[in-house]
Amino acid sequence: MRDMSSHEVNQQLARGLARALEQHVTIAARGFVTATGDQFFIVNSASHNGTQYLVAAVGSRLVCSCPAGEHDLICKHVALVRALLVAERMVV
Ligand SMILES: [Zn+2]
Question: Which end of the chain has less neighbouring CB within 10 Å, N or C?
Fold first, then answer.
């Protein structure tokens, strides 16, 4: 990921989450990679045409298989998964 200030990252995450909610992006499935214990998520794309992307937690980073994610941009899929993880940590 390219260097960004935390302010810039937070803005991109907020925009990504807003887009994910507006466009009804949903999480289809989640699980753990057996070999590493890393968490992963299968996320339905905003196009609702059956396209799904893989969001994987690698250490404290989330990486997405969508075109934006492959360019190291903070996409709506990563923003949605991150919001879920943050929410879960708050209630546990
Ligand atoms: Zn993505």
Answer: C
Number of Cα atoms under 13 Å in the Cβ half of residue 54: 10
Q: Which residues of the chain have pLDDT under 70?
A: 1-3, 91-92
* CA atoms of 46 and 10, how far apart (whole Å): 21
pLDDT (0 to 100) of residue 12: 94
**Rounded distance from Cα 74 to ligand 1 centre (Å):** 7
34 C-alpha to ligand 1 centroid (Å) = 23
Q: Rounded to whole angstroms, how far apart are CA atoms 68 and 39?
A: 20
